[in-house]
Design goal:
Helix content: 25-40%
Bound molecules: magnesium ion
Largest sheet: 6 strands, parallel
CATH architecture: 3-Layer(aba) Sandwich
Distance between the termini: 28 Å
Number of strands: 6
Strand order of the largest sheet: 3-2-1-4-5-6
Number of domains: 1
Structural class: alpha/beta
Radius of gyration: 17 Å
């Protein structure tokens, strides 16, 4: 058995582009334009604003209930259905404000319901980290205590590097959906969409050991200097 640990924003849900649309609609102009190849993963390079105004606008995005109706990334729904049909219950791990918990749960269950899953809440698990107290790699190591083989999929270089460094037995797939220049990201695999993930993990010749052996870090992960 393999545990899947999957990020939500810009992996399952199209957060950054939806947030930019929300901001532009509020200001009635193209205030927030996401560049094709951000130099790095920061608010200033991705959204064109400093952290303070970003957090202010994110607060408005949360208050307006946008997390309850977020659009999906291309191919995400198909993959969620494929997981469900293969009896894979993914662990969705996200860092979000506690105010958005109900909206996040609602949106995920709506997606599974729309896919025809009879019991949406039983098809996945949701872990919401509070950035002040939890880290994704802590959650993953807790969840990995009984299932030692895991696959982690995230778009943020920092979380990928954390898992590569601290979570032995977990393959980190960097889904670089924003096309961030990735000089300082050290994933086992880099992909840009769900189709590429599908090719990796549902290829019958690619069991977990083969995936790990063919990856950028086939050896002991925790010794990496990232
Ligand atoms: Mg993300």
């Amino acid at each position: 058995m393999i545990n899947f640990y999957i990020d939500l924003d810009d992996v399952i849900f199209n957060f950054s582009r939806d947030f930019a649309a929300f901001v532009n609609d509020r200001y009635k102009k193209e205030k927030c334009v996401i560049p094709d190849n951000p130099a790095e993963f920061t608010e200033i390079t991705v959204f064109g604003m400093e952290r303070e105004p970003f957090l202010y606008l994110l607060g408005l995005y949360i208050e307006s209930g946008r997390f309850a109706v977020q659009p999906l990334m291309p191919g995400a729904a198909r993959m969620m259905l494929r997981f469900a049909k293969n009896n894979i219950k993914p662990n969705f791990i996200t860092v979000r404000d506690p105010k958005s918990v109900i909206h996040t749960m609602t949106r995920l269950q709506d997606v599974y319901h729309d896919l025809g899953i009879r019991v949406p809440y039983n098809s996945h698990r949701l872990w919401i980290a509070n950035r002040k107290y939890h880290k994704k790699w802590h959650i993953i190591n807790e969840l990995s205590r009984f299932v030692t083989r895991g696959i982690f999929i995230d778009d943020h270089p920092k979380y990928i590097n954390d898992v590569v460094k601290h979570c032995p037995g977990v393959i980190a797939i960097w889904m670089n959906t924003l096309n961030v220049k990735g000089d300082d990201c050290c994933p086992h695999y880099e992909v840009s969409n769900w189709e590429e993930v599908d090719t990796l993990i549902f290829n019958p010749e690619n069991n977990f050991e083969v995936l790990l052996a063919n990856s950028a870090h086939p050896g002991v992960q925790q010794n990496l200097a990232v």
